[in-house]
Amino acid sequence: MLKKDSYVMKTGDGVCLVMEELCMKAPGSPAPVPYYRLQPLKDPGSSVFVPVKEHYPDIRPVLTKEEAEEILYSELALVLNISEEEVLERLRLSAEKKTCE
C-alpha cells in the first residue's frame, strides 16, 4: 500500500509523488478499479495512473542516501573483488588527493 504524499520510484517515470488513490473504470473491466495517481517530479503537470493490484515491480520506495551507499559499496566490492572496507578506504584516499589550486 502506497501512502499519500510519499515518494516512489516508478520505472519509466522516475521519482513520483503519490497524490491519491481513486477508483476508475478500466477498459474491459465491468466495475471500477482502484488506481494510484502519481505525479512525476520531472513533469509536475502530468499524472500517471497505476492499478493498485498491479503496481509491483514497476514501483518501489525511493532509497535513502544510506541505502544507496550500501548498495554502491557492495557492488563496487564485488566488481573490484575487494572488501567493502577497502572500497571505503580507496574512496577516502581519492577524496584526500583532490585539491583546488
pLDDT averaged over residues = 89
- Assigned CATH architecture of the largest domain: Beta Barrel
Distance between the termini: 52 Å
Shape: elongated
Q: What low-confidence regions span 5 or more consecutive residues with pLDDT below 50?
A: none
Residues in helix, %: 25-40%
Count of extended strands: 5
Overall number of domains: 2
| Range of strand content | 25-35%
Give helix and strand order, one letter per element, not per position.
EEEEEHH
- Physical arrangement of strands within the biggest beta sheet: 4-3-2-1-5
Topology-level CATH name of the largest domain = Thrombin, subunit H
Q: Report the structural category.
A: alpha+beta
CATH class of the largest domain: Mainly Beta
Rg from C-alpha positions? 20 Å
Please summarize the sheet with the most strands: 5 strands, antiparallel
Number of helices: 2
Give me the secondary-structure topology.
Elements: E1 7-10, E2 14-25, E3 32-40, E4 48-51, E5 59-61, H1 65-80, H2 84-97
Antiparallel strand pairs: 1-2, 1-5, 2-3, 3-4
Helix pairs in contact: 1-2
What report would you give on this structure?
- With 101 residues, the chain is an alpha+beta fold.
- The chain has two domains: 7-61, Beta Barrel (Thrombin, subunit H), CATH 2.40.10; 65-97, no CATH class.
- 30% of the residues lie in helices and 32% in strands.
- It has two helices and five strands; from the N terminus they run βββββαα.
- It has helices spanning 65-80, 84-97; strands spanning 7-10, 14-25, 32-40, 48-51, 59-61.
- A five-stranded antiparallel sheet has the order 4-3-2-1-5, with no helix packed on it.
- Strand 1 and strand 2 form a beta hairpin.
- Helix 1 (65-80) packs across helix 2 (84-97).
- The radius of gyration is 20 Å and the shape is elongated.
- The termini are far apart.
